Description:
The chain is mostly helical and 935 residues long. 74% of the residues lie in helices and 0% in strands.
Amino acid sequence: xxxxxxxxxINKAINTQEAAVKEKHARTCILGTHHEKGAQTFWAxxxxxxxxxxxxxxxxxxxxxxxLLRDGHPNVLKDxxxxxxxxxxxxxxxxxxxxxxxxxxxxxxxLLNTKMDFHxxxxxxxxxLQMTDRQLDEAGENDVxxxxxxxxEIFDYMEWELNLFHTVFKSLDMSRSVSVTAxxxxxxxxxxxxILDCSHLYDYTVKLLFKLHSCLPTDTLQGHRDRFxxxxxxxxxxxxxxxxxQYFKRLLQIPQLPENPPNFLxxxxxxxxxxPVVLIPTGNSPPDSExxxxxxxxxxxxxxxxxxxxxxxxxxxxxxxxxxxxxxxxNQNGMTRDDKDRLxxxxxxxxxxxxxxxxxxxxxxxxxxxxxxxxxxxLEAELAEQKHLREQAxxxxxxxxxxxxxxxxxxxxxxxxxxxxxxxxxxxxxNEQRYTKLKExxxxxVQSHADLLRKNAEVTKQMTLxxxxxxxxxxxxxxxxxxxxxxxxxxxxxxxxxIHEMDELQGALESSKQEVKLLQNSLETSKEAxxxxxxxxxxxxxxxxxxxxxxxxxxxxxKLDEPxxxxxxxxxxxxxxxxxxxxxSTEKLDEAWKRHMSDTSDINSLLPSLVQFxxxxxxxxxxGAQTRTSDKLCxxxxxxxxxxxxxxxxxxxxxxxxxxxxxQITAVLQHIADIAQELRPPxxxxxxxxxxxxxxxxxxATAAAVETAATRIEEMLxxxxxxxxxxxxxxxxxxxxxCTDLMQAIQALILASKDLQKEIVESGGGATSPKExxxxxxxxxxxxxxxxxxxxxxxxxxxxxxxxxxxxxxxxEDLIVCSHEIAASTAQLVAxxxxxxxxxxxxxxxxxxxxxxxxxxxxxxxxxxxxxxxxIEEVDTMDFSSMTLTxxxxxxxxxxxxxxxxxxxxxxxxxxxxxxxxxxYELAGVSEGWGDAAE
Length: 935
């Protein structure tokens, strides 16, 4: 397209006449941006227009620019960003005018700036805002923070759309049929773009809010819900008012929002949400005439108004003939009747010249339009071909992306399981280290206690010696008294000497008694200090130990909300065993605490019970979080941790120690055990003594089924080579050849599985026979049987599907689904075998290599099937060269309706598939080998 022709169309579309922008001029501008891959010509023409001095001109510029941002070339946004500051200044300037188009232009310019900012920040959103649910998820990059910010930006975008909507309606006199006047259509025509934008923004807001409510607390999103409710009521009212206007009835079908807004607090309400769709009837476009008059839409007009239409047309061109009309000469001073007549005659002549020029212009425009329509048809045909090629590429890309995501998901699951195991080992090591530190502290306390006992023994020994000395003194005193009586008969001199000696001994005795009393007081003081110090050390150590136990339980509670610890598959039997152990440790701690309260000097029996209590409560919480059941079990585990912390707080508080009660903890633990008992997967109805024979039978049956399947495929291939030729033979060889490779890989897998199974049974940990081994490991055996059955069944079903496809009666999709099922069954068989195998087993390595070959060949079947499908399907060539614009528009609308129906059906099928998988996981618990950890 020539730039000069585009400039002419821009000037015709953006003019000072108060009438709606003609669709043909706007369409030419849009095609021009696609032709030159940008908006350089558009802005070159617009910069020469006096947008700041004429409000109508600025209003129509906003309308055309809005169309270009929606439907023009993607580079329109890039080329327009350099003029953003000028648009902001222009909006601020028009905002000073409170009447007429001033406020309308100011708000419209702000809306356009907001639209450019939104698409700059979110380049995944196209200008017309049409996106699929998958593209909407990709726009947020699976990050809840991105979805939260995106919702805020959509709210801001919608706010300016609604402001313009409301301001246009406020500026119109709704008591008259303004939608059939040129001035009214000038103001209403941009609202078509606003209605299209709002329908998409509302739909995306609802979907994003449901996604946010599934990830974040409801209190966090209260502001979002309040803002949505306000915009919902405004948009509902504006849609209703717009649908009653005659102007919109002829151009588009406006959807009506539901009576009540969606309930985001109920996740299932998303399925009740219906995306609003704006339908544009074919053949209807804004009229190109300057003025439309529909008599049955006008209010207060009688039959005489029909005769005044020519005069009204004259007024539309030259203005009103009343007092406000500049051509109303009745109020002009100094003008005669002749002057008026001459002026009117002159104006009629000029009008005739203008009509001639208008006729020539219309003829030229008609020729240009015909040329453009031919070019449009060529471009649309080319566009259709490109779309078809793009759809093929997208389909192939989707398949490859699906395969990649499946491999990534499996890899992530494996990594998560390894991380979970590593974390459990780390936790165990940390607990062992913490227990070692506690043992060291306890040993130090015992050593300190022993030192104090030794000191006490020394003091006691000194006291004993003092008492022995006192006894000697008493005996000496008694002997002296006896001697005194015996020598009383002796001479006075001897008596005096004895009395003197006795007085000396009495003084020594009194001194000895004083020393003994001092020693006794010192001993009592030392003993009291020793007892006090011992109690303080024991109390401090007990408090420190309780804090450590609280830390263990708090750390386990924190893991409840971490995805890494809620994605395991711990068996319910193991959880029940942990619960029983926790109940036992709780009762032991309660008994030890009661003994401690009766004799506070004894804490030797309390410390091991306290440490064991913290570790076993932590085990219950961790294992309950990894059982992947309902929220009921997770909440019970959290309650158990809370009750345990409350019990420890009671033990730490001296004022509450006497009333400590552990009954709440044991009740919660029993409740957890009851829930786990309900969640136990049903066991296969097989007697343990029959398991050994059944394993051999099932493995033999699987091998026979695979052998039969391989033989059938070989026979079908021979028959096809005999009976078929050309493309059919090529197709059959490609499909059956890939199936043959897959069957050979499955046979190798079965042989490797048998060898590994034999190795596992031979190293079965004391079992005297294979039957005893299988009976002792019944859960694992049942899982192995289920996996073996699944592999044999998948091979049989694949052969049946291949037979039907070769005969032309089956579906290619059946082969693809069978391939995926075989790959999944293979992974199940490897997982069941790996549970009991040694890590360094060569047979296990051979089984894993065989599993990889099966997966590779299964992918080969899928690739061959899709390649064959694309070869034999006939693709209708889309030729739109002979279709009219109306026919193309009709088919476009039909395609949009079909796309919406298919998307709705796809969503329902995905939900159904999710429920089926959930039910399958519940029923196949034994088959998956979930009970192995308890054995």
